[in-house]
Amino acid sequence: MIEFATQSPTVLLVDDDPSILGVLEMRLKTEGYGVHCVASGEAAVAATEGQCFDVVVTDLRMDGMDGMELLQRLHARDPGLPVIILTAHGDVGSAVQAMRLGAFDFLEKPYEGVQLLRRVRAALRGRAPGPARVEAPAAEPPFVAASGAMQRVWDQVRRLARVDSSVLITGETGTGKEVVARTLHLSSRRRQGPFRAVNCGAIPGELLESELFGHERGAFTGAHAAREGHFRAAHGGTLLLDEIGDAPLQTQVKLLRVLQDREVLPVGSSRSVEVDVRVVAATHQDLRQLVAEGRFREDLFYRIDVLPLHIPPLRERLDDIEPLALVFLAEFQEGRVGAPVDIGRDALDRLRGYSWPGNVRELRNRIEVAVALSDGGVLSPDDFSLQGATASVSEVVGGEFLPLRDARARFDRSYLISVLRAAGGNVTNAARMAGKHRTDFYGLMKRYHLKRSDFQ
Description:
Layout: E1 10-14, H1 18-30, E2 34-38, H2 41-50, E3 55-59, H3 67-77, E4 83-87, H4 92-100, E5 105-108, H5 113-125, H6 148-160, E6 167-170, H7 177-187, E7 195-199, H8 205-213, H9 229-233, E8 238-242, H10 249-261, E9 263-264, E10 273-274, E11 278-283, H11 287-292, H12 298-304, E12 307-310, H13 321-333, E13 341-343, H14 345-352, H15 359-373, E14 377-379, H16 393-396, H17 404-422, H18 427-434, H19 438-447
Parallel strand pairs: 1-2, 1-3, 3-4, 4-5, 6-11, 6-12, 7-8, 8-11, 13-14
Antiparallel strand pairs: 9-10
Helix pairs in contact: 2-3, 6-7, 13-15, 17-18, 18-19
């Protein structure tokens, strides 16, 4: 039976370069760690059969068994063993793949010794005696998974909960990315810790750094008291960085440093603070395209796109519409004065026939309005003003086909109307839902003679 050391933590170093092993060994021993060095993956496997290590630091490229295979062999025996991968610049993609297989982190060469020490300390904070286990959450998952598409998402969430790497959730606005992130948190070993969410696109760039990293008193005009920031507030838990694609480049640099060093530097402070946070990022944008346009840092993209998770739009999971509608119906009836409200089968069929450009968020808004305006009884299709719902091409154009250009114009106008209604006339939110810049969205509204006041 393997027993854990009761004294100083032990680190297994694996590298086929003796000079690198010597430098790493000296650095770690200076900090008080017990160190065992081996020159191959095969030797590392043999070493773990007779001794328990708290952390493994291994090179990715080695003759014989490489770091990727070693990772899988070690985790077959102990899934909770933190493994840190050392990689050359050209192998960053492979290192990200290793993290998807369960590696704790990677360190790109050349690196400073202090960076390695920070990785090892962070790995030790999350190390539990014996193989890692993830218990089922105390409650059912807080999102509806009636469709096959969302059932597959739930299966992914359960797998991702077993590791502590960064997750990137993608999907259209309103699909429920925050709900999925919260479910991931509740399914993980961090569920007893805090869950914090910050929308990077809703906070002005000059204030975002203070919100994320905190600030000292007097750091800037108006900073009358110190603020800990979201990273420190989420210590021991999970932090959701929603709409990460909207973060300014200057903030992206500091985010990268936090993910690499596991430390935050509050605005106006000269002392860094260690944080133990799992970062989940979310976006409706194509980050690869933003990288190509120079609007998003490639190195940060590699850091957050470790474990990708895509949420399909509501129009691609129609089986979720009815249970979601019933959940929202019960929500908005709670504490309501007056006769109870139900929803008829014909109304549910109408909801299924709509394209839902605003996704789950729009469905919730539609149910809220219908319940608020109802005098009780059963909601009918007429209680839902859904432009284009269950309408075929022939119905839209009066039985004759329009030229493609005119048909596209009708669709575009209908889409804009739906998005503006879902956003309650808030053009900024409507533009974000449509994946457009605010100025471009205003241009489309002008083209189709739409006024914000008509939807407020």
